[in-house]
Amino acid sequence: MQSGQPIIILKENVERNYGKEAQRSNIAAAKAIAGAVKSTLGPRGMDKMLVGSTGDIVITNDGATILGEIAVQHPGAKMVIEVARTQDDEVGDGTTTAVVIVGALMEQAEGMLEQGIHPTVIAQGYRMGMEKALEIVNGLSLKVEPTDRKTLFKIVDTAITGKSIESVKTKLDGIIVDAVMAVAEKTNGKIDVDEEDVMIKKQKGKAMDDAELIRGIVIDKKRISEGMPKKITKANVALVATPLEITKTQVKAKIKITSAEQINAFSEQERDTLKKLADAIIGRRALQTRSSSIWPRMEFLPLRMCRKVI
Asked: Range(s) for CATH 1.10.560.10 in the chain?
């Protein structure tokens, strides 16, 4: 304090606004963010082309993607983007609508502030409107049974409309519904779905019409040897928490090989060692006699159960 006046120390290049000036700044920022995405809404909605600082180009009409690519510094604009992020995390859709509604509310608040209405009164009015809207929505809501595939198809169809995949929308509707129903679990009378149980695997060079639902585990690896089978049915999967490899010695040593026979013998011994490890895994009873220090954690599970473990 100096002569009754407070001394405010701010960082370099920081602007301080307060009162009506701060209100106008925050409202303008919210309207600008809403204006950036509102043209993507509706049947005539347009895509946005975003060019990053590194030259990367993103073409999308998804509000969350657009706002994620925009670099903003204004605190009011950041709050609006956080609204879209929260909407995406909680619902997974409707990010553009949420941002446009925020922009419209701010635009209406701007007129009320000019009329001299206090901000707390405006906020209370918006809160009352929210409660009334929730009451109406609850009255219009319908209970959807997990077995009602027809209604689930309609929900999925609405969610993926506008994602530039309309040509294969009918096929994807069935894939999405079947995938969700496959991992749905009933707990305490409530149906829970963990989206982490459904993995989306992208394959380069494939068309959208090639999409399919695989009820199991996809291992994107090539066979080490041509002698390995391409398909195994009714398989058990071993979850091994120790490396299947030949342990190196603690003492440094050199091996001198002077002939091709010695090389073959050395390679053959390595293969025999690895084969013994594989044979021990195949023979379940043999695992029970192994020391826990050698096999600290090993569990056999049927293939159908591995989704819950991995």
From this structure: 20-140
Full pLDDT tens readout for the chain, 310 residues: 455 666 666 566 666 666 778 888 888 988 988 888 888 887 777 888 888 777 778 787 777 788 877 778 888 888 888 888 888 888 877 888 899 999 999 999 999 998 989 999 999 999 999 999 999 999 998 888 888 888 888 888 887 776 667 778 888 888 888 888 888 888 887 888 887 888 888 877 777 788 888 887 777 777 777 888 887 787 777 777 777 777 776 777 777 777 788 778 877 888 888 888 778 777 754 444 444 444 444 455 454 444 443 3
Gap between the Cα atoms of 268 and 265, Å rounded: 5
Residue bearing tokens 């120790």? 242
Place of tokens 């963990």: 194
Rounded to whole angstroms, the Cα distance separating 280 from 238 reads 12
Q: How far is residue 307's CA from residue 294's CA, in Å, rounded to a whole number?
A: 27
What CATH number has the domain spanning 20-140? 1.10.560.10
Long-range contacts of 186-190 (CB under 8 A, 24+ apart): none
